[in-house]
Structures
1.
Amino acid sequence: MDAITYRRLGPEVAGELLTVQRAAFLSEARAYGTLEIPPLTETLDDLRRELESSLTIGAFLGRRLVGAARLTLEDEIGWISRVGVAPDLQGKGIGSGVLEALEAAAPSQVQRFQLGAGAKSASNIAMYEARGYREISRTFDSVGIELVIMARER
Ligand SMILES: CC(C)(COP(=O)(O)OP(=O)(O)OC[C@H]1O[C@@H](n2cnc3c(N)ncnc32)[C@H](O)[C@@H]1OP(=O)(O)O)[C@@H](O)C(=O)NCCC(=O)NCCS
């Protein structure tokens, strides 16, 4: 496989990102038995706004967008979300790579990274644990899915 490159995404790629995000998160929807999970209900306009207001890093294979991850600031906390990789390219290090690129691109105010992973998504939780994230609490999202809140000091 050619090298993957990582770069910040702007609102002009919202449509392409919507396609990749919906494809990537379908497996999570299946696992939890609902299509109403936030990565699937976000609209094109929502994504455009997010691309303007938060930091999203994309992974590219040549010119193709194949993965992404988002960082939203809350004082010294950088919330990571929407870590997703195109279904045909999962398991090849792209998810870990985009997470690392996002962490590296976070502004200096960020002292701690936090994220929520579905409690039943063991391989996702293992990926974050392997990168130094630890469970700090649990909560439920807007559709009642239990989330493990994980954190890593910068
Ligand atoms: C989760 C996800 C982003 C990981 O990206 P990836 O490129 O497939 O993962 P990597 O190749 O970097 O592998 C890192 C770890 O991810 C975990 N993992 C999670 N989903 C995986 C998948 N479908 N295939 C392979 N590994 C997966 C494994 O623990 C793996 O650890 P290993 O390297 O020790 O085997 C990607 O599989 C995906 O888009 N899944 C659907 C959307 C999703 O669940 N996002 C996370 C929300 S918290």
2.
Amino acid sequence: MLENRLPTRQTKITGVVLAGGMAQRMGGTDEGLIQLIDRPMIDYVIASLTPQVDTIIINANRNLQQYRHYGYPVVADTIGDFPGPLAGIATALSTAETDLVLTVPCDGPWLPSDLTQRLLDQFTSQNADVCVAHDGNRMQPVFGLFHKRILPDIEDYLSAGERKLQLWLKRVRLATADFSDHPEAFINVNTPEEKERVERILSGSTSTQ
Ligand SMILES: Nc1nc2c(ncn2[C@@H]2O[C@H](COP(=O)(O)OP(=O)(O)O)[C@@H](O)[C@H]2O)c(=O)[nH]1
Ligand SMILES: [Mg+2]
């Protein structure tokens, strides 16, 4: 059972680690389980996410047994063929018991410690359906806060054969939260070269700047 270490927050939030991609640029290796220095990549994400949410779900499409070792529910996409992150978001929204779901990718080891708070502030003040992070140049929609009420619209969109998360966002009341002061948050590991770079940064031999 997770302790909610944000006593001022009344709204319950489920954190979802999106680990359901094919990771083609990684040669198809299951991204969340790739070793970064001495631990699977998802360990870093879960460690940063835990104090920010009330409960966690892992969304994965392979190696479900290994993901279950973390002790959280592991859910596979309800739509097959790896249609993209929106399928993972839909799966999470249909599984979560809270109205609000925070998504993060499994391949970014530096989640801001105030990710939830900043997304929730903008979500609430802009009366949004969805609030996503903005890095100063562009939206980073897999770092997002989604309300359960938009699930039917995602399902319609996916059933129509649409896939693109960025385009789907045009259909909802969208807020963004500024994280331009956290450029490291959006460094993610998509290729073996990026993995090497991130490992160098984590081991302290170089900086994120
Ligand atoms: N559930 C699910 N998640 C996916 C799928 N494709 C990608 N993802 C997840 O979405 C996130 C972003 O995917 P990634 O390939 O790293 O995209 P990029 O970093 O934006 O180029 C990662 O956490 C992936 O695991 C999918 O088909 N289903
Ligand atoms: Mg990525």
3.
Amino acid sequence: MEKTVFKKYGKKNLVGKPRYLKARIPKGDNYRDVKKSLRERNLYTVCEEAMCPNLGECWDSKTATMMVLGDTCTRACKFCNVKTGNPKGVVDKDEPRKASEMVSMMGLKYLVITSVDRDDLPDLGAGQFASIVERVNADHPEVKVEVLIPDFNAIPDHMDTLAKSNPFVVAQNLETVRRLTHPVRDRRAGYDQTLKALAYYKKAHPHIHTKSSIMVGLGETKEELVEAMMDLKKAGVNILTFGQYLRPTLAHLEVQKYYEIEEFDHLKKIAYDVGFDFVASGPMVRSSYKAVDYLNFLNEKEGKEIDWKK
Ligand code: SF4
């Protein structure tokens, strides 16, 4: 990997996390009550499973993320701690109802649905995503649904299947710059494949807002990050997020650099200069971090509620 500039934290500290990255454990009666009710109904959020430090902020803003299509991914990205294997075509047909129930139970106004990759399914999971979005849209017309999807191999039929269910935002993560895509991502994922999927949604379904995320700290240069931003902008992406890569276990890729808060701010400024509509950038920002903020931004800009379902 290319040598990166180690500033304040120095190379010997790369295995340790800067103070600002220490996880904040959510607490409070509201958190405990919601958690208890979710367990009683056998509902699980990614927010809890991943011990996301942003949980408190997201739940307070009535946003939560649900993982669907199981816990076993057919791919094996070198930054990700999700179990890899063959789920053998198993799909929980009750997930649409569970998603709808989660919205009711948590009083959500914004639901993010994400999944593992399911290369074992003929439609790569697009139909299940569509069923969930349809159900939540039907039961909760006031709620917006964002989907953080696998790339569906950028196959138009699969992408159309999902688009017809009318998600508010479709997100597909570029994850890293072109040069580092392999080894960072699974060999079946690709820099151009992600761009192709995002560009297709914007061209074929322009009413859908599109989003992507980049992790920093894997050895990328600023020039490469700017190139990635330009490529995403060319694909018509509306929303971009930057977050710090954190090594989940010693078996995963090493962190090459911990970015300073000011560097995240700088990336955000560049991204706005490139022309994205909305940018979130910070050490703990993840793709779904306070995803409702984009909706709030649109409402503020328009001075009214956007009727995106028309
Ligand atoms: S495809 Fe997604 S869930 Fe699967 S290993 Fe890669 S990052 Fe993790």
4.
Amino acid sequence: MHRLLNRHVAFAASALLIMSSSTDAATESRWNVLFIAVDDLRPKLGCYGNTHIHSPNIDKLSAGAVRFERAYCQQAVCNPSRTSLMTGMRPDSIGVTGNHSHFRSNHPDVVTLPQHFKQHGYHAAAIGKIYHGVFPDGASSTMWDTMGDAESWSVPAIRFGPRYYYTEEGITAAKSIYEKVYKPTNPGPEDWTKKLVFGPATESPVVPDSTLYDGQVTDSAVKTLQQLKDTDEPFFLAVGFIKPHSPYIAPKKYFDLYDNVSLPSHTEFPANAPAFAGHGSGELRRYTDQPTSGVISDEQQRRVRHAYYACISYIDAQIGRVLDELERTGLNNNTIVVLYGDHGYHLGEQGLWGKTTNFEPDSRITLIVRAPGMKAAGKSNESLIDLVDL
Ligand SMILES: [Ca+2]
């Protein structure tokens, strides 16, 4: 308890340091918030000391922000992590510990973070993945047509998708798996692109950035910032990217940034750890080009790691476009920027692929906060904090 208290005091002190940097209290109280969520982004970024990763835009943001070095999610799964952050309640308090339950089912009157801003005169809007796609009745949305919580936003949330594959090989595999597996068991849209179909784990199509989901999110965010620039109302704009979540798909030019991708140095599951602390890497094995059990070859492991890095660089470029627009419009002068990853990720360390464990690679997250004129700009913070502290 004492440690917890210290931790909250440490984070509050950091927050105060951020807030005390403004010279105009009246202006400060109406600062906008640009809230950027990145799905499954562990802190494998240049600014976190991973210099082999190409993340110039996030690195630039970090250089003018506070980078939290010991930030953790409450639970390393999308829905519990995001629900906990957005409601300010821990997973066991809000009753959401999996991807198929909605927080309004047990707590219909909880006030979410954007809802709080909305109730205080802010325009709250969302583009892309902010909540995990779950309907309040508990059904998971495979159509990605919901942001999961209408009460949070001033206007209907914008969400694209769910198409994944763009190369001839990827499309063929996705169509095939749709006909064989998805259609017989889960009749729905006749078009495979309208369902979440898991084909190959990686793909590097030669397409413009905006052909993919996250490029569409970026286009929409840029347009929205241009519109918000001319309004008097302060805003809370949430922008959510879905890469580097699997399948690891990014335009080929981002794959070309990497060569000779290495395997991790520790690939053995900890000798004395209980089996339930790990898993069978089912998240990776569900893809058609991966073995359903047994050894994943070094070549496949390198390819997946390579593709994860490519996805990071693709997202970095999208974040760069959004932040450039914030600067171009002058909104960066009165806008707080929060960038976070909903949880970490295993890329073969300890013999694990994917998320959900409580090991460091899954639980440690990316968290960067920038406020206009902050005195702590460019510093890192070693305080032990978690996402609920936001
Ligand atoms: Ca996630």
